[in-house]
Amino acid sequence: MVVVRLQGGLGNQMFQYAFGISLAAGQSHNVKIDTGLLEDAQSNMRAVQRAFALEPFGLKNGALSKIDQLRFAPRRNATLLARVLTRVLQFIFPFELRLQKGNEYAEQYKKKSNLPICVVGRWQSPKFFESFDLLVKDIFSPDKLSPSESVRNLFDQFTDDILVGVHVRRGDYVTHPLYSKMLGALALDYYESSFALLQRRYPDQNLRFLIVSDDISWCKSKFKDLDRVCFVEGSDALSDLWLLSKTNIAVISNSTFGWWGGFLGDDKRLVLAPSKWAKDLEYIPDEILPSHWVEVQTSFEK
After folding, report:
1. What is the C-alpha separation between 89 and 100, in angstroms, rounded?
2. Does the predicted model carry a pTM greater than 0.85?
3. pLDDT tens for each residue of 58-82
4. Ranges of CATH 3.40.50.2000 domains, the chain
5. Distance of CA 27 to CAs 22, 116, 137, 201, Å?
6. What does the DSSP assignment read for 198-253?
7. pLDDT single digits (tens) 231-248
8. Can you tell me the distance from the alpha carbon of 284 to that of 266, in angstroms, rounded to the nearest whole number?
């Protein structure tokens, strides 16, 4: 058994489950999901509230039994009796805890084990599931999603163009007291450099820029002079993910959501990504960008 303790939003949960399924597939284990860390975060007023987000891909919440929950994933507010039962269960039925150190990538995390495994971490690198990337792409296939009618119609409207999906992450990267300092929103020049690179590479082509964002008003004010641009409004996260995966080219932000929008598309398409993932080095995952993606020089909003 591999127990995946989920944390964070959709993109983070996808990385965590992808690592869990790669461990299971390599060792004939089954995978079970635990949402205890998501539930604990709901009682932390400083944390960004997240919920289980993988159901659109056919994955079910709450797969752990009560006994397994005590064994693998005791709750922060557990009673004294529950904590004693946890100790007893872990003594009788040992398992291996794989707790990621920061954002590091290391081969030791992927080693085989005869014991059940519980994984806790971000696991934000395709190297954690590199031998099973086709399996991961099948599990998270965008074709399982149901994009809004407006987004599908927008996509179908420009079949003669080279579609460039652009993801702009702002939101809590701007407003949250911690995330704005440690992660940070990309500065405008990252997107301008990406657009200029594409226009040089495809000088006589019909590039059409489709902008998705959690701050579409900012995008409208900053990209108003960009030729052949469409701002995707009134959409939802899953529709945006579907659209990013279907375009001919992707320009992603420093967001795991945007990362999956780039990764789930055609393997041969061009993906532009920021050369630096976060303001603070401790928040930059090891090996997060696939080697064939093109890195664009990055700066952050002050």
Report:
1. 23
2. yes
3. 998 756 777 887 787 777 767 788 7
4. 147-296
5. 9, 10, 19, 44
6. HHHHSTTS-EEEEEEES-HHHHHHHSTT-SSEEE--S--HHHHHHHHHHSSEEE--
7. 999 899 999 999 999 999
8. 25
Position 193 confidence tier, pLDDT thresholds 50, 70, 90: very high
- The token pair at 201 is 């590479």
> Is the CB of residue 147 less than 8 Å from the CB of residue 192?
no
> φ, ψ for residue 164 (rounded to 5)?
-115, 110
d(CA 17, CA 30): 12
Buried b (16+ CB within 10 A) or exposed e, 239-270: bbbbbbbbbbbbbbbbbbbbbbbbbbbeeeeb
Q: What is the mean pLDDT of the chain?
A: 91
Whether the per-residue pLDDT at 212 is higher than 80: the answer is yes
Nearest-angstrom CA–CA distance, 261 and 263: 6
Indicate the fold that domain 147-296 takes in CATH: Rossmann fold (3.40.50)
Is the CB of residue 30 less than 8 Å from the CB of residue 65? no
Predicted confidence at residue 294, as pLDDT, reads: 98
